[in-house]
Design goal:
It is a single chain. By secondary structure, this protein is mostly beta strands. The protein has two helices and 15 strands. A hairpin with a 2-residue loop joins strand 6 and strand 7. The longest helix is centred in the middle third of the chain and has 6 residues, at 122-127.
């Protein structure tokens, strides 16, 4: 699956130092198969760390505040544990894939690397952009894919029995294959929280996968006050 990632927010504030932490839970459904994920976000020292865990899988992303991925770790059970880091126009991967050690160097260009799309795509909204081209890595093949994101506008989305307004961002593969596949992410207009994803993860005819925020409000784990997402 596309790693569809979710929230724990931690701010480091000037003296007196205070930490703000929140958590969101999401449910992924494909046909009759469903599973739950937690999505955590931690912001500190000028970087953002997004951690998604569930169903024996873990994804950890270190990003800049505007969504560009600096490093990515994917752990799937005991047989797959991959770490990727970007240097210039190269993403270096190393670790275990299905129990075998691998080392790969992926050539990209100057476009940003967006791995946790549930966080990174918010940059279109925050920066007032209608379109953005970026790279992402397929978690099943570990191949880099050039993508195009388009901000389509505001739509009504139902979350936990509540109707909320959300920005819709559509993604397609850049170039010739753009017409063959698309998926959409929705971000709540009030705070840019990721609330829903819809897309098929396979050839035409593959059942649609839907990821939905389980609760309309964050769970507060904070020793101080609750913050809002940037």
């Amino acid at each position: 699956t596309l790693q569809i990632l979710f929230l724990l927010l931690l701010f480091s504030l000037p003296a007196p130092c205070r930490t703000i932490t929140s958590s969101y839970s999401y449910h992924e459904q494909t046909s009759e198969e469903g599973k739950d994920f937690s999505w955590d976000l931690q912001e500190e020292g000028g970087q953002v760390v997004i951690t998604a865990t569930g169903n024996g899988e873990s994804f950890v992303n270190v990003c800049t505040p505007d969504g560009a991925t600096l490093s990515w770790t994917m752990q799937l059970g005991e047989e797959t544990d991959i770490r990727g880091t970007r240097t210039g126009e190269t993403i270096s991967l190393q670790g275990r894939l299905h129990g075998e050690m691998i080392t790969r160097r992926l050539s990209i260009d100057s476009r940003p690397w967006f791995q946790p799309l549930s966080f990174s795509l918010r940059s279109l909204i925050q920066q007032g952009e209608n379109q953005k081209s970026f790279w992402t890595i397929r978690s099943d093949t570990l191949e880099p894919v050039a993508m195009e994101a388009t901000l389509l506008g505001i739509e009504a989305v139902e979350i936990s029995g509540q109707t909320v307004e959300a920005w819709r961002v559509e993604i397609r593969q850049d170039g010739f294959f753009a017409a063959l596949w698309s998926a959409s992410y929705w971000f709540r207009t009030s705070d840019n929280v990721f609330v829903q994803y819809r897309g098929a993860h396979g050839i035409p005819g593959t059942p649609e996968t839907c990821v939905t925020l389980c609760t309309a409000d964050p769970i507060d784990h904070s020793p101080g006050r609750l913050g809002t997402l940037p």
